[in-house]
Amino acid sequence: MAKKKNELWEWVKALVIAILLAAVIRYFLFAPIVVDGLSMMPTLHDQDRMIVNKFGYKIGKPERFDIIVFHAPENKDYIKRVIGLPGDHIEYKDDILYVNGKAYEEPYLDEYKSQVIDGPLTEPFTLEEKIGSETVPEGHLFVMGDNRRYSKDSRHIGSVPMEKVLGNTGIIYWPIEDIRLVK
Asked: Cross-referenced CDD domains, in alphabetical order (predicted)?
């Protein structure tokens, strides 16, 4: 009888440890997320399932063109691409991104740019027009969706405070035929 109680106790301890370990990994390190909508097309598709890296992103600094997940004002989590870092001056002219006066290539937009026949993919704007500041504020990011005409992003909701960022993502794990690293 004592042997059975001891064995049961060992199973309970193992189960509790497994649950705690899973909770720590999900809350502090990695979490699954489902893409909801078309704002990141063609890079990400509606209902793609991805892994959010929470740990490394909180320690390191965000980089331009990272794909991040953040808490948006509507109590939803958004997936967008980092365009502007703190202190950056952002401007779009003739469908070209300018950061601090330097033109940047955005190869992830090439597919959509080639399909547009009625004007630019990204309407011209300056940062001041969109957020009322000449530069991205300290502790904030300027983000945009890859599907520029159909994305609710920093052009509409303003710059994103770093404390709202959950992490970055770059791994699609479902559907199986779409498993890949994204850039």
From this structure: S26_SPase_I (cd06530)
pLDDT < 50 regions, the chain: none
The secondary structure of 74-100, three-state, reads CCCEEEEEEEECCCCCEEEECCEEEEC
Cβ neighbour number for residue 42 with a 10 Å cutoff: 14
Catalytic residues: 39, 80
Domain ranges in the chain are 32-181
Provide the pLDDT for residue 66: 92
Q: What is the DSSP letter of 13?
A: H
Report the pLDDT value the prediction gives residue 121, as an integer from 0 to 100.
Answer: 86
User: Which of the four CATH numbers 3.40.630.30, 2.10.109.10, 1.10.10.10, 2.170.120.30 does domain 32-181 have?
Assistant: 2.10.109.10
**Strand arrangement, sheet containing 96-99:** 102-104, 96-99, 90-93, 125-126
Residue 129, H or E segment: helix 127-131
